[in-house]
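hey can u check if this looks right to u? its 343 residues, i copy pasted from the old doc so theres a chance i mangled smth
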Amino acid sequence: MASHRRPKQPSRTRVTVLTATAGLAVAISAQSGASAAPAKPKIDEVKSKVDKLYHEAEEATEQANLAEERRGKLHKEIDALQDKVARGQQDLNTLRGQIGSVASAQYRSGGIDPALQLFLSADPDTYLDKASAIEQLGAKQADVLQSIQAKQRTLAQERTEAATKLADLEDVRKTLNEKKNKATAKLAEARKLLNTLTAAERSKMEQDEQRASRAAGDRVELGNEVPASQRGAAALNAAATQIGKPYFRGGTGPGSYDCSGLTQWAYRQANVSLTRTTYTQQNDGVKIGRSQLKPGDLVFFNNLSHVGLYAGNNTILHAPKPGAYVRYESMDYMGTFQFGVRI
């Protein structure tokens, strides 16, 4: 009968080595998985980064608005100069026609020496009258020549000025495209970040902002502060009718707004003409400090990249950012306060 041997059991040492090896493999696998799938950013981190990108996009938008405004002015100036040059060229052609008429008149009088013409003339009195007329023609010719020279100098200066403005216009176009592209890139980056959040997380962010806006509006109603002026009060009241309208880059109302578009529109309802951008609206009134603010004053933030209307009780009414709507907001959430401007 064949003997049945028991299989040889692994030694305790070998079991320990195998266990340790398996544990190491699991640890390496876990570390590899962790590096392949980095920890998801928290909602507060995403919000902070998105807000920063929105601020940068708004700054680029305001710079684009400034370039757009400059482009419009240059177009008008260039059109006026080109019209002026065209009219000047017509005047020059008329003067050249006059000098040709004078030359023809002198030619028709003959090129003989005046003393000889007098000697040969059958009627010296008639000749002397002609000579006087020719002398007058000569003086007129000199005047016309001086006018031609002056007109030529003026036209040369106007053409040079027009060429300079055309070069400026090309630079402005490049700046405008650059700023628009920068704003678009920042907004795309912000959307990419927002897409890392779940629908529930994005909804929570929006609800938190809406609650903060409602709370800010409640504070305004409790404030009862005296407006900066009747026009300031009228502008603030007009802006309040736009609550809920969407932010839109370059928007000037009434369907949508960017920040300076809203302030410009609101003051227009109060019969006050503001300039288009944050960078120019800062010069549309008198600069004041935070403690001097009254409802209706303009308030500027973050290196002049954002503007709103002070609504009282540390609150502003503004067009905040892409994806948001015209609303009240506490100044504590607005970043760096620059100054106020009283219109």
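The helical segments are 12-36, 43-108, 114-120, 124-194, 199-223, 230-240, 259-268, 278-281.
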